[in-house]
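quick one, 200 residues, struct below
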Amino acid sequence: MFTFDATTHRYLHGTREVQSVTSLIKAAGLLGPAAKFYTEESAERGTRVHQACLDLDLGNDICIGHDESLYVDSYARWRDLIHPIWTTMEEPRLSERYNIAGTADRIGTINGKPVIVDFKTGGVASNGWHGLQLALYDLLYDDLPPMIRRRIVLHLKKDGRLPQAVEYHADNDYSTALNLLNNRRHNDSIDNDARPQAES
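---
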């Protein structure tokens, strides 16, 4: 059984922990300067904002502090202007092929065109790793062929203004993503071969 523990941010396949998309990027040293801004506080803020945005889309009551609620207002401004149609919202996904897991914030369509969207409460990544992250999510949610979906990051504003929408187009995001996934699969294979075999 595949599960996601929201408290510890761990993906589990049975009792085995599965590496996440973001931790794969971090382990490869590709977060760049963003690595030092990944604090427990920022992670918890992101979790609260994501949950509040999900509650907004589901029509649930929103429970979040006033200051952080402005991030939700920022998303709402964009949503009400663009009118996306979401088919997947915050649904954890496991790729048994690549032995990796992750959770895309939103998948759906904008003006009839497939799109995958990620929310950020921070700024634009100077080294472009957000594009790589979305390429990995696109490969993870493989109901469509790669590179069909538009890849957009919404940088939600803490003052409630319209978010900055950054779209990623670089094809090499996918080649980098596939290299990371294939290296991960190769390393897993080596690890499995190195384990002692039970006597028959």
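The helical segments are 21-27, 40-58, 66-82, 129-140, 172-194.
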